[in-house]
Amino acid sequence: MPTFSASDGTRITYHLRGDGEPLVVLPGGPMRASTYLGDLGGLSAHRQLVLLDLRGTGDSAVPADPATYRCDHLVDDVDMLRHHMGLAHIDVLGHSAGGSLAMLYAARHPARVSRLALVTAAPWALGLLPTVEERLAAARLRAGEPWFAAAFPAFETWLAGDGDFDPAFAPFFYGRWDDTAKEHDARGDDESNDEAAGIYGSAGAYDPPTTRSALSRFAAPVLVLAGELDGSPSPDLARRTADVFPNAEVAVQPGAGHHPWLDDADWFVRRVVAFLGGSGRREG
User: Fold this and answer.
1) Which of 15, 157, 218, 280 to pair with 5, CA 20 to 30 A apart?
2) Is 23 helix (H, G, I), strand (E, B) or coil?
């Protein structure tokens, strides 16, 4: 497994899948090992995926200072990866919480990003959060599912601030609650660093006005891809995310949840490849 040393000496690991032009992939969770991304539904047949294990996750080392788990500090690790690979510019894909890291990287190093793909990205770095009603509206789209009646009341209570997160909520995050989704979800606890997740977005991680200002001048093409059935972010929140950028396009994947490459790999790969090889245009 290839590794490099971060600026503080922490050993960081990344994984290469496929051949071709590199695409740096930043995982979500937050702070989940990159293995959950697989080959992004076969995207590795078109690009070399550079799957980063963020510090303290997967095969990367635990840092001496836990404060460096904070999202804004991780920007330096991404740039050290770029430098280690000898690349003047990189295409970046951020999934879920990794979308905020990708946005912070683009804001701090705009000239080093050729294209930016935000896949069901959490736009915390922009100060944008899904509302309870957005999440409930997305959940109600699943009313015909056999698991809905048992899961929805508790999900509604949790979103209202009462009760704890229940594993029964997992189907709301997938477009299809099949064996593949169940296996993917079951690995989550083993692949995640809970301590790091709690620090990732802690106080000081984000400065939304500064980030918005920087990204309003970010000239590179941006794709904001949302799942039709995802509530965090909803397609509407994805559109509001795209509005921050001057050269962004929005794609809403039909029938997809928070992990769209699992729900329809062909649609996902086709759309992402079209963006990586095409010009940025805003959705009409």
Assistant:
1) 218
2) strand
Residue 5: phi, psi to the nearest 5?
Answer: -100, 130
To which H or E segment does residue 4 belong?
Answer: strand 3-5
The total of structural domains in the chain comes to: 1
| Contact between residue 78 and residue 24 where contact means Cβ atoms under 8 Å apart | yes
208-215 vs 97-108: helix axis angle to the nearest 10? 60
Encode pLDDT of 273-284 as tens digits: 999 984 333 332
In this structure, the number of other CB atoms found within 10 A of the CB of residue 196 comes to 23
Q: Give dist(CA 22, CA 7) in Å, integer.
A: 22
Which residue in 68, 44, 53 sits closest to 3, CA to CA? 53
Q: For 152-169, how does the pLDDT look when each residue is reduced to its tens digit (9 = 90+)?
A: 999 999 999 988 889 999
CATH number for the domain including 106? 3.40.50.1820
Residue 139 forms part of a structural domain: no
Asked if the structure places residue 208 within a domain, the reply is yes
Contact indicator for 55, 30 with CB cutoff of 8 Å: no
Dist. CA 179–CA 258, nearest whole Å: 16
Q: Return the closest-CA partner of residue 74 out of 196, 193, 175.
A: 196
- Amino acid residing at 43: L
Got the DSSP string for 191-235? HB-HHHHHHHT-TTS--HHHHHHHHTT--S-EEEEEETT-STT-H
Q: Is residue 169 part of a domain?
A: no
- The 10s digit of each residue's pLDDT in 55-85 is 999 999 999 999 999 999 999 999 999 999 9
